[in-house]
Write a structure and sequence with these properties.
single chain; 186 residues; alpha/beta; 6 strands; 17% strand; globular; disordered N terminus
Length: 186
Amino acid sequence: MNICLVSLLSLITLSVAADPTEVILIRHGEKPEGRKDPHLTSEGRLRAVEWKGYFSARTPRPDLLMAPKPSQQHPSVRPIETLEPLGQSLHLTVETPTESGDHAELARQLRSDSRFQNKTVVVCWVHQSLPDLARELGVKNPPAEWGAENYGGAWLLTYKAGSVALKVIPDATPAPKTVTPSVSTK
């Protein structure tokens, strides 16, 4: 057999072998009006707790949690804050391997690094980049956009034999219920 063909087959086998079992894409929780505050709102913090319940109850449970690394250009910590309650409940650290604009590098790592092989990875990212991230992760025709008001949806990417299937879960978490203070009528 030709040495080039053997090398090509080895590369294909390695890339298939390194795929995670699942990648679950979610958006960070609710954010304040305007972009100056890099943190979640109180509703966003409640949403983060809802994600904890959703992922703690599902099988397989997440093995890794990933969010973008804050940078001077994108200082938001909302994706990290969204995953922190889940990380605490599952005893996992939220990893921040790349900045939010570098979703192609994140996808490359997830599909080629053997530490992700056969793992379930939850990725919390900024909604504008989620369709591109899904495409970089091998989804041929992801939805064109992640709705601006969609804070509770998820995209489940399942890998099998080198191919990927996408399932859109529109309402994985319910809208957070805010606690309104009671008014005394004395």
